[in-house]
Amino acid sequence: MESLKPADILDLEKIKADFPILSREVRPGVPVIYLDSTATAQKPINVISVMDDYYRLSNANIHRGIHVLAEEATALYEDSRKNIARFIKSPSARQVIFTRNTTESINLVAQSWGRANLNSGDVIILTEMEHHSNLVPWQMLAAERNLQLEFIPVDDHGLLDFDEYRSLLELNPKLVAFTQMSNVLGTINPAAEMIRMAHQAGAITLVDAAQSVPHFPVDVQDLDADFLVFSGHKMCGPTGVGVLYGKKQLLEEMPPFLGGGDMIKKVELRKFTPNSIPHKFEAGTPAIAEVIGLGAAVDYLEEVGLDKIAAQEHVIVDYAIERLSEVPGVSVYGPEAKDRGGVTAFNLDGVHAHDVAQILDGDGIAVRAGHHCAMPLHDKFQIPASTRASYYLYNSVSDVDKLVDSIYRVKKIFRS
Length: 416
Ligand code: 7TS
Known about the structure:
The protein is of the alpha/beta class. 40% of the residues lie in helices and 16% in strands. Strands 4-10-9-8-7-5-6 form a 7-stranded mixed beta sheet, sandwiched between helices. Strands 13-14-17-16 form a 4-stranded antiparallel beta sheet, with helices on one face. The model has no long low-confidence stretch (mean pLDDT 97). Ligand 7TS binds at residues 38-39, 101-103, 131, 133-134, 179, 183, 208, 210-211, 231, 368, 372-373.
């Protein structure tokens, strides 16, 4: 058994040393084994330092001062936008809008593009595996505008049903919005193909890239995505900053989302002229330090190499599925390793997901238990909750062994 264990691809010791939190003990003698990166990733020292430096050395508001500090802060903020544009291969940094997170990016598109373009009877196609943040904003708009929501079904293997997608496209949808990678099943959807099909049917597309951009190379031009959204905190960056990428013409035609300072060219008492993109969508003082931190996170991920990160996670998830499936009573949800990223959600017969997570926590293993903001997907699988172990660049195949050992401890305690 031990001889079949795969080797890590990345230099794990070197990588772990970059993340201060990973050297702490959660209780005396119990080191943390962090398997909850799908919820939020840990932060490398360069991200922490760059934010610390900003507050110590350059703190000022941006886009409005002419003093040295304001100029430095503005340059750092705008350099970060360029970093992110390069990272996702955006043709221009102006197409990168900073928001608070994936959730706000989707709400921005729903409230701005959606309200300007969708009317009674229009169809939106979503999937059954969406996170609540790619469901509720559309439900809210659908209630306001009398829209029709349709869902691409998920099959028993955790894959989207493409025959059903083809039939739904015959309804001439205005929008197809879907996740590139499921935060529960780990399924990586064939986004380029789905976008091509949507465009053929005349629809605009929104890709929820919250779980893809952090984990494998994403090229918005290759995908031909109209909108693509993600969060900084899941890709080694800080909380409080997210991104909306959009095609230039769409963004230019869209009305502003929030009104206030910075998003205007001119204001009179009774009217205003909006600023050009990206500023039109960045009202008020933004999360300056966090945006700068996200720029450093991108530098870090590029230095390690997204291809290598994806390969490391693939080795881990392949091994995790094999090891978890050997445990009597464990069911792992989602497709085969070849179709998924580093997420394994599972249940242990007769033991509630929260109890599993609590006992794992006793061994220092941090996992998430619950519906993972995907209640409809859990309903579909007829389960109230699942325990989810998720993997990122600082995880090793040995973490999987520790996870499995701890699950055996759960079985012993619950006699399951
Ligand atoms: N979309 C997907 C696919 C996600 O996994 C998440 C967060 C979001 C959107 C929302 O991101 P936010 O940054 O706006 O909150 N997913 C999870 C999770 O699986 N556990 O905690 C957060």
